[in-house]
Specification:
The strands form four sheets. An eight-stranded mixed sheet has the order 7-8-9-10-14-13-12-11, with no helix packed on it. Strands 2, 3, 4, 5 and 6 form a five-stranded mixed sheet that branches. Strands 15, 16, 17, 18 and 19 form a five-stranded antiparallel sheet that branches. It has helices spanning 7-10, 303-315, 320-333, 337-347, 352-362, 368-377, and strands at residues 15-18, 30-39, 42-52, 73-81, 89-90, 104-105, 107-115, 118-125, 134-140, 147-153, 164-165, 172-176, 181-187, 195-200, 209-210, 215-216, 222-233, 239-253, 256-265, 273-280, 284-291, 296-302. The chain folds into two domains: 4-317, 5 Propeller (Tachylectin-2, Chain A), CATH 2.115.10; 319-386, no CATH class. A hairpin with a 6-residue loop joins strand 11 and strand 12. The radius of gyration is 20 Å and the shape is globular. It has 386 residues and is α+β, with helices and mostly antiparallel strands. Helix 4 packs antiparallel against helix 5. The longest helix has 14 residues, at 320-333.
Amino acid sequence: MKYLSSILTNHPEVKCIPLWNGLLDKPGYVPGNISLTNYNGHIIYAVRLVSYLCYNFTQWPLINQMMYLQWPYTSIIVIGSIDGYYKQTELNIPMGNHLLWNMFQGPEDPRLYVWDDRVYMNIAHSGLVQDKVIQMVCRFNQEFTGIEQTWQVNSPNQYEKNWAPIQGKEHTFLYDPYTGNTITLCTDAENPDKFCNIQGQTTFLNMEGGSSQVIPYKDDQYLTITHNRKNWVNNCGYRATDYTHNFRIMEFDGDKLKTIKTYPFKFLAPGIEFCCGLAEDADDYYIGFSVMDSSVHVMKIPKDLFEQVLQELEAQECPPCESYWNNSFVSYFEGDRDFHTAMLSYINHIPWFNARKIIKGLRGNVNDDILDKLETNINVSRGPKQ
């Protein structure tokens, strides 16, 4: 698999840094994922913060590959801008009264988009309707300090996730990247202030899901990032998940978005990675993604370098860290959970002293030499340890 992080080695002008920016100042919450868009010349963000409430190691060991994930969880969303022009604000979005699968509650996967000089956000919500994940659409005030209007989307489907807003198309979303189906929202005639309806085909083949927004690219084409997810259960009986992504160049064919070319990649390493943000300004593309549902990052790629980045991804060989990861997965499958936990915490880009603290707190028999070996051998793009 191709790693986008390896591009940073060859091109120092490509930047990728963890976005802390005070997001961890809320006790008990970690940043789960991030969306980006351009509003009035500023790259604004919406970050989902997650609170993992109760830990039951017997019931949920290594779920989603993270031994320190605690379930069930609730989440909130904060907004702001990378340059600080729009101050960080916590949104008031109701949690709802339902707990999906006895685990999930609240908003997730925010995606920002702009229409008619106003910022909107579509989110998946699992707390408002029993046993369903619905889509909500929120309109922000012009000052981008809060939500002034919210609509719930009526849908016959049980789970509505990963709608990718198409920038420049009025409330239109890429529904299924594999088929190219798009949908458009319209107000509900009976209750226009609270609900809206879907126009378009809502059949989803579950081959690949939307991730980032769909933004204009060149020659009437569009650029987006989509994702695949692979789940399996190892021979220790634990669930594991691995995500891959595609840069996808598309163009409209009627009301469908037809794929012209894809460039598969991973951001940093095997495991859970998710992208909810793709934005641009005059000079750069900005990609917002998360690692292990508990850290968020922004990658900035100059536009005049982007096609070269795609070409290098296409030509890239498997980096050395891939075989190291594969070897460690073998160790994990044989039951070496301590080493695997150490790996994931390090890849997670959390401050190093916190990584050691988390690992030792949950698995007191993890030796320092394991952590030292991990730090020495894993080749990923990150700042200096703290």
